[in-house]
């Protein structure tokens, strides 16, 4: 999928996160990603510089259009990216590049990619599977630099959101104690403060505070510590699993996503073997009077490569605009 050949013309797709910007190209009418490159966002002062650096590889003699998936609301121009130093303007990019530019929300791209996933690219949590004979609403959410959430209606219409910024609601006394610690760090605690790279680090820090320590670790340090058997790191991963399940269940109810909830983002494939799937599913289901409803909803971790780029390719094929 990462090989490249020079084509006369085609389209460039890009998945612009808070940490990395991934680029690829496709030929006209094709959906095979070629020339995949990943840049660190901090290496470029402006998004246009990263795009020009990719175009300089010369994969395409002519770029007819570009589709960017960005981590922020795209219903206005310019677009502010909450987890990035870049500001994005479609008008400015088109003027500077001389190329038609489409911009969609990064999790609109994620939800568009689900239809392209094979059975081997989805790791199901629990025994429930989608009914291939029926169609309905699906939702995708996932932790990365932030927490993205989107949904797709049965009609194919995308419902973008900024649901990663809703308030965190503790489900038990331990989670309430975590929230009380995090209130010392943040005036308002959104679910993104717990379900993201920084969220994993926050959960470790808060659990340390609860046992009289004041230690800090990077997200990678937490996962490495959990693999090594560190008790507090393991607790942070367990809390991450429980809170992710609870929030995913909330999203299912909010969106009416009875046809499936898909967990994506940059972090989960890296820590999948540490995630407590049984606990995640239990917390997903635990919705009081709607527990039976949630028990019937399929839940899977997306393991397929480059879902954001694959979703951009699908967005280019749609006859309508996608937010």
From TrEMBL:
EC number: 2.7.1.2
The entry's keywords: Kinase, Transferase
Keyword Kinase: yes
GO terms classed as biological process: glycolytic process
Signal peptide feature range: none
GO CC, alphabetical: cytosol
Entry-linked PANTHER family: GLUCOKINASE
Protein name: Glucokinase
Species: Zhongshania aliphaticivorans
């Amino acid at each position: 999928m990462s090989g490249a050949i020079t084509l006369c013309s085609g389209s460039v797709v890009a998945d612009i996160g808070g940490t990395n910007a991934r680029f690829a190209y496709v030929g006209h009418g094709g959906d095979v990603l070629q020339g995949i490159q990943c840049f660190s966002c901090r290496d470029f002062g402006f998004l246009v510089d990263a795009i020009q650096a990719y175009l300089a590889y010369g994969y395409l003699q002519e770029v007819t259009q570009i589709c960017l998936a960005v981590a922020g609301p795209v219903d206005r121009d310019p677009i502010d990216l909450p987890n990035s130093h870049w500001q994005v303007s479609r008008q400015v990019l088109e003027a500077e590049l001389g190329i038609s530019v489409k911009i969609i929300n990064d999790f609109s791209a994620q939800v568009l990619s689900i239809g392209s996933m094979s059975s081997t690219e989805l790791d199901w949590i629990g025994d429930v599977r989608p009914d291939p004979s029926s169609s309905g609403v699906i939702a995708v959410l996932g932790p990365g630099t932030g927490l993205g959430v989107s949904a797709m209606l049965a009609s194919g219409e995308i419902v973008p959101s900024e649901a990663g910024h809703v308030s965190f609601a503790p489900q038990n006394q331990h989670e309430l104690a975590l929230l009380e610690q995090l209130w010392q760090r943040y005036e308002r605690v959104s679910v993104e403060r717990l379900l993201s790279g920084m969220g994993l680090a926050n959960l470790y820090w808060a659990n340390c505070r609860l046992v009289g320590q004041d230690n800090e670790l990077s997200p990678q340090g937490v996962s490495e510590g959990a693999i090594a058997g560190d008790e507090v790191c393991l607790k942070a991963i367990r809390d991450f699993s429980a809170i992710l399940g609870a929030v995913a269940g909330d999203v299912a109810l909010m969106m009416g996503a009875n046809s499936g909830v898909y967990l994506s983002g940059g972090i989960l494939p890296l820590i999948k073997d540490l995630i407590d799937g049984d606990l995640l599913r239990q917390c997903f289901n635990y919705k009081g009077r709607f527990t039976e409803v949630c028990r019937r909803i399929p839940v899977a971790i997306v393991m397929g490569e480059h879902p954001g780029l694959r979703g951009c390719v699908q967005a280019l094929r749609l006859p309508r605009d996608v937010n």
